[in-house]
Write a structure and sequence with these properties.
alpha/beta, Rossmann fold, 2 domains, 4-stranded parallel sheet, 11 helices, 13% strand
Amino acid sequence: MKTAVVLFNLGGPDRPEAIQPFLKNLFSDPAIIGLPWPLRPMLAEVISRKREKEARVIYGRIGGRSPLNEETSIQARQLEAGLGGDHRVFVAMRYWHPLVEDTVREVADWQPDRIVLLPLYPQFSTTTTGSSFGEWHRCAARAGLTAPTRALCCYPVEEGLVAGHAELIGGALERAGDAPVRVLFSAHGLPEKIVKAGDPYQWQVEQTAAAVVDRLGLPNLDWQVCYQSRVGPLKWIGPSTDDAIRQAGADGKGAVVVPIAFVSEHSETLVELDLEYGELAHKSGCTPYIRVPALGTNVSFIAGLVSQVERLGATDAPAPASPSGGRFCPASWGKCPCAAAG
């Protein structure tokens, strides 16, 4: 049975000239800015042009472009190799090429017997997985793509994900040697109002960190969850990663920083974590400062994704589901999409 696996990711500008349209696509998303049309695209145009100069500086520090497309393509090929010949893995980016609508056409041309939607966002948020799934279903309906479709809504404590993080953190702790360090699990932040509206992202990030710590099995490990990439005037969830780094330095400790919600390297890891926060750590006396790599093609991580695709391909349940096959989040997180399966 021919199975199309669709890997979802954010996308990123592939050249300096793509930065402004990439930002415009981002801020045109109703999951990011909730204004009605036509106000939302008008505001997106203004914000993208205002932020283009700063974004060019950021991407200029890593060669003027995002590595995310190449990273995701490599992950797709590794996943495809693990799944076998009756599977084909497609990449669908939310805000830059290959866009979801283009991937829908590719999948339709391949004529699969079934489709598995697999986000490269381990923790569900309405702003990431929710937005990508919504765009997929809209584009698939327009294209007349009707193959049975299954979706993995999240996998915050999936065995391969947790094992992969633990392996990479273990290597970083070995590098730190006897130096006192605090493990900082850094995730992309969200405005607090989104979480208060029932988005389970923050809760799921905390579950991932706790599962990894449990897997490490190190008594008295000093660790903390924190959040990066805050923009705009709204109050965001915290504590912030920069404050956590300053506090570690004040406490006489270094930091082992884990991109707990990113599975691919991109500007938030290569610029924000490596360069900006690395400089902050130096100024704050937070040494050593060791950044754990994103999971990428970690063998345990890819094996976990393979097992989830195989599981989803064998089920008839139409609702998005967690690795357990049902609802993972407590009922209080009302934006969890697998409610119908729980």
